[in-house]
């Protein structure tokens, strides 16, 4: 029996290259990627993962051509229209992290509806990072903390890992495993604080090719890691 990570976070990368290799438009890569989100979410829930955080759109992705940005922002509607029924049948709860500002209101509405509809579900949390960037998140957190100190709601005594309570992820378990697809080996402004002691796994597969078996392999690899947190092996 292998250890199942409680919280898995994935940088879903490589949609564009997947499409290019097949002579297709980048949008077709993103479309194939959305279907993969469904497969991986259902499978992770079945494996007993408690929380799956997916990097769907970064604060840097606004730099892409407007047509691509608009297409990406239309995908939540396709996703929830197509799969909400299954999400409910599987008892999965939808959440979202990131800055709401700038996300088109139609996409926000779709997310809010899915979050509300699934709020009492007790299976895995499927958490979408939308317009998410770690640097932004840290700025927001520092402003919140500073406000509390200046308004005398708390003293200036932040210590240990208490800062995590100011982040968008405050209600989620610690990230055990970070997966990035497509062969890139960087974090691209994703969960910089939260990944302090996470295990990292890099797959050469493009996201639309990252299937259930690929997730099983990543989790198997995770199960063989020795997490020491700066201490010594127990055995
Ligand atoms: C990931 O695929 C999807 C998003 C960043 C939204 P990319 O679009 O980055 O695909 P590549 O990296 O160009 O292949
Ligand atoms: C990271 O992928 C963001 C998402 C997967 C949403 P990018 O493709 O944007 O990252 P870079 O540009 O290669 O660092
Ligand atoms: Mg990319």
Question: Your description of this structure?
Answer:
- The chain has 6 helices and 6 strands; from the N terminus they run E-H-H-E-H-E-H-E-H-E-E-H.
- Helix content is 40%, strand content 14%.
- By secondary structure, the chain is an alpha/beta fold.
- The chain has one domain: Decaprenyl diphosphate synthase-like (Undecaprenyl pyrophosphate synthetase, 3-Layer(aba) Sandwich).
- Helix 2 runs parallel beside helix 3.
- It is globular, with a radius of gyration of 18 Å.
- The mean pLDDT is 97.
- Strand 3, helix 4 and strand 4 form a beta-alpha-beta unit.
- Strands 3-4-2-1-5-6 form a 6-stranded parallel sheet, sandwiched between helices.
- The chain starts with 6 loop residues before the first strand and ends in a 12-residue tail after the last helix.
- The site of one 3-methylbut-3-enyl trihydrogen diphosphate has 12 residues, from strand 2.
Notable characteristics:
Undecaprenyl pyrophosphate synthetase, 6-stranded parallel beta sheet, alpha/beta, 6 helices, binds 3-methylbut-3-enyl trihydrogen diphosphate, binds magnesium ion, 235 residues
Can I get a quick summary?
With 235 residues, the protein is α/β, with parallel strands linked by helices. It contains 6 helices and 6 strands, in the order E-H-H-E-H-E-H-E-H-E-E-H.
Return the structural class: alpha/beta
Mean pLDDT: 97
Strands ordered across the widest β-sheet: 3-4-2-1-5-6
CATH architectural category: 3-Layer(aba) Sandwich
Distance between the termini: 19 Å
CATH superfamily: Decaprenyl diphosphate synthase-like
